[in-house]
Amino acid sequence: MRAASAPSSASPVAQQAGAVPYRIDPDGGVWVLLITNHRGDWIIPKGMIDANRTAEQTALNEALEEAGITGSLDAAPLGSFMYQKGGRQLPVQVFAMQVDRVLVRWLEQGEREREWFRCAEAIERVTQVDLRNVIRMLQARSQNRPAA
């Protein structure tokens, strides 16, 4: 007979994952693709990590659904930030995503705008300070890369 486990008073912390989609132009300039949320704020694609998915799989899936893009994630996470949703603070693990394809049609195109910004301008467009800092990490990381 198995002993019953005691009920937990603490609810599990919800986790999200997202991507900072980027491309590097021939001159070495870094461009970031931002999308809008329902309020019209510029954000990155992100979403809840389902039990059967990794953070990386979630980041790629959210980029496809919310921004209509495909690509590859950099090996190491870019950083993280806290996101307020429904009165809760949710931690978001963020990956840099080098975009290889931009779709003409995608799942959430009727709900969102998307636009490419130079990295410095993307930092200014995003209102969340912690997300700005994550995009700054991409900017710093890209300065150590060769131009495409």
Question: How does this model look, in words?
Answer:
The protein has 148 residues and is an alpha+beta fold. The chain has one domain (16-141): Alpha-Beta Complex (Nucleoside Triphosphate Pyrophosphohydrolase), CATH 3.90.79. It contains 3 helices and 8 strands; from the N terminus they run ββββαββββαα. Strands 1, 2, 3, 4, 5, 6, 7 and 8 form an 8-stranded mixed beta sheet that branches. Helix 2 packs antiparallel against helix 3 (129-142). It is globular, with a radius of gyration of 17 Å. The model is unreliable at 1-14 (pLDDT under 50).
> CATH homologous superfamily?
Nucleoside Triphosphate Pyrophosphohydrolase
Query: In the CATH classification, which architecture applies?
Result: Alpha-Beta Complex
- Report the structural category: alpha+beta
Q: Which fold name fills CATH's third level, the topology?
A: Nucleoside Triphosphate Pyrophosphohydrolase
Shape designation: globular
CATH class: Alpha Beta
Approximately how much beta-strand content do the residues carry? 35-45%
Unreliable residue stretches: 1-14
Q: Share of helix among residues? A: 10-25%
What is the rounded Rg? 17 Å
Instruction: Output the helix-strand order.
Output: EEEEHEEEEHH
Summed over residues and divided by their number, the pLDDT gives a mean of: 88
How many distinct helices?
3
Describe the largest sheet: 8 strands, mixed
Secondary structure: number of strands:
8
